[in-house]
Structures are given as structure tokens and as C-alpha cells.
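User: Please write out a complete single-protein record containing the residue sequence and its fold in C-alpha cell form, without commentary.

AI:
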Amino acid sequence: MTLHGVPALVIHQVEEALDDDEKEMLLFLCRDVAADMTSPSIRDLLDILSERGKLSALGLAELLYRVRRFDLLKRLLRMDRVTVEAHLLKHPHLISDYRVLITEIGEDLDKSDIASLIFLMRDYTGRGRTAKNKSFLDLVVDLEKLNLLAPDQLDLLEKCLKNIHRMDLKTKIQKYKQSDQGAGTNYINAVQATLPNLSLKDPSYTLGLQNERNKEKRLVAEQLGIQSGSGNRSWDLLEWERGKLMKTSIQESGAFLPRHIPEERYKMQSKPLGICLIIDCIGNDTEVLRDTFTSMGFEVQCYLYLRVDSIMRVLRQVASMPQHRDYDSFVCVLVSRGSAQSVFGVDQAHSGFPLDQIRRMFMGDLCPSLLGKPKLFFIQNYVASEGQLEDSSLLEVDGPAVTNVDSKARQPGPYTLHREADFLWSLCTADVSLLERNPSAPSVYLQCLSQKLLQERKRPLLELHVELNNKVYDWNSTVSMKERYFVFLQHTLRKKLILSYT
């Protein structure tokens, strides 16, 4: 244990848990409080700050809060985000608001944005100074060393963000300048400054205006191919979605195609992001699921060992909650024994609650407060062996609802969404004998899901699901048929979905 501040074990655990991007962010955040350290590792940085009395448990909590590792806050420091926010409201910050601002901007830039910024900065840094493969934070450090960027010197960055059409981030800087933090801050580059008693700045306090972006990302042909290809396992592409892509006749002779189409993303700005309902009738995965979705910014509600009638009651109650109006998404995780088309809860002899009815409760006509917002379902169902033979029809139970809708739903107006829009339905089945052999074994599917979401939440969810499938496939290749997991995905998502504040 260190003589002051944070125990060495905690520092070691933090270093092991952070990914490379989070480590880079943490080192950048601490540049001013570690000005005399030359390229420290996370372990060295935290240990030296702790020994010098600059890093208390609350200071470490602030750092974990800034990199949004709320799971580590809870597991290592026994704190939650509300506690840290309350502390930041009343006490000076370890990290300057300038560095928080820069990291927030960096989190919201994609690779093409960063490449464009690096190119534009060549007029100021010199053509040979900035390598093309640098990160945004590396670029910022270079600019700081040249005295081209500082808390009271943001005009150049603001200008370049405008030039790459990131008006949302330009607006973020303008709001920072107008705040007390941006005006007249006494700051010496990379030197510890006396921090005033600042008001808490929300981690995504100016992440609005995302819809102002009009960046072009995907070829029209690629978009149509992806959407059409997903129809085999997913619901057939709905007509209102095809209309949005403005399907066009294209001659094989090489008629001109618009090179890109504007990319849209679901808004993820609410605090919390939404309700995450966890119903675990087996009891082996609740803790990791709760930590995962709490760290991602969801309000988690957990229910254990429910009977079928209780599952129905909880789902109805959650579907009717008024809070959905203020939130940007909804997640449901359900773990149960069941059959090919239903879940049993803890009622072994029950006929079960149909899976299609679960989804039905959250469709646009019955749950209008979630209309237009992503609704995500992750279901682990342990079924009898014969149920695996029916896997090709596992998710067809709701198929007729897509085509046999009433005329009003079938012909939505220009501002109307189909009731089945914006769903992601990820269903994993496994043989119930897995539980009989090892009643306490967690689900490989849910463990992989939690790992991907914790480590790579800033990537599109559909990409993560493909990699999740690969991990499950790797598992299946090493075990017997009775130990395998079978994952099926359906979705009617209309935009890119990233489960992180945007």
C-alpha cells in the first residue's frame, strides 16, 4: 500500500481494467497535475500522484468518472456516479474543465474527422511535424507545445472544427468560452494550477446539435446491400425504411451513383440513457449485467426468480412508465428456462409466456413514449434439446405482424413511424442441461455481451454483435453439442446505434 492516498492494489486493478483509449484519455486529463513526469504509465502516474498527496480516493473517483468507468467506481471505490457528481458540485476539481472539454470533443470525433483536422493543422504545425496516424489527443498535445492551443486560446481548434463541418463541437467550444471556466482561467500549460470552486460540468454538457452533422459515410450500394442482406435473419426490410433510402433504378452499364449518403445516429444524450430492465430467473448473470449497464449510463432495474405471471406484470409496468418520454432508449435483458417460442420463468410446468408478446408490449402503438427510440432485447433462453431443432422458426412467431398490419399502419405518412421500427432482438438459446450440470454457470453469450459493451461501447452496436457472434462461435468449436449456444438477431433499426453519450 502506498503511504498516502490510494492503495497500490486499487491502482493495479484500475490499470488492468482500462483499455488503451481510456488510458490515453486519463494520461491527457492528468497532464497538468503530472507536468514533471515524462511519459508515465497509468500505474506510475497514479502511484506517484498518490505518494505526493495529490490523489485521494475522491480524486481517483473523479478520474474514473471522467472516463465513464462507473463499474470501477462501484467495484473498487464503493461509490456511484451520483456521489461523485455531488462531490464535484461542492469541491475543487482535480482535472481542469479545459481538459474535460478536449476529451469530450475527442470522444465525438471519428477517424475521418481526426484525419481532416491533422491535415488542416499542417498549415500551423508544419507539414512534417504531425504524423497521419496520431490520435486527436496527440494532436492537441502537439498544439499545446507550440502554444497554439490553451484554455484561453481555442480559436484555431474552433476554426478547424468549423471547416470540417462539426458545428456541434464548435458550439461546444463557444459555450465553454461563455462560461466562467472558459473566461479568465489562470492556467499554465502542463503545470498544476489552483483550481477554483467550479460548478459541475456534465460529461456531455454540449453534446447536442448532433443532427447538424451532414457527414457522408456509406456508399448507397453498400447501404442497400447491408439492409437487404439482414432480411434473411431479421424482419423483412419494411417499406417505410426502403422509402427513406429512396430506392433508385441503377443501370448495370455504370450509371452514376452518389458516392455517399448522410449517416444518421440515434440520439444518446439523456441522463440516464434509458431504463435497463433485467429479469434473471436463473440468477447467474445479474451482477455483471447490472454493473455493465449502470456503467454505460442506464437506470437499471433488476428482478430475480420471477414466475410467469410476475414477468408479465413487470413488463407491463415498465412499458407504461412515463420516464420513457425523457429517455433516449430502452434495454431489456431476460434470462430464463423456456421453449422455442416462450419463457417459463421459475414455473417449470407452465406453458410459458410467448416471446413475441414481450416485444409486442413495447411497440409504438402500445408504448408511444418509446416511439422512434431504440428498444433493445437480449434474451438468454435455456430450452430442452428438441427445441434446438426448431431454431429456424424461433423468431418467426411475430412475422405476420410485419405484413398483416392494418391499412393505417401499412401506409405511414411522412412523419409516422411503423410500430415495429427501432427494435433490436438478440435471442440466444442453449440446452437446459447446461444448468443441470452446473447450476451456477453464467451464460457465455451474456458474458461476451457484457465484455463487448464495457470495453467497446463507443462502437456501433451491430458491429459489436457480429463480434459477439464470433466469440460464441469460437466457444462452440471447442465444446460438445449440448454445451453450445445459438444466437439469432433481428432488427429494424433505422440509424446507427452507439450506446454511449453522443
Observations:
- The radius of gyration is 25 Å.
- Confidence is low (pLDDT under 50) at residues 182-262, 387-415.
- The CA atoms of residues 19 and 140 lie 20 Å apart.
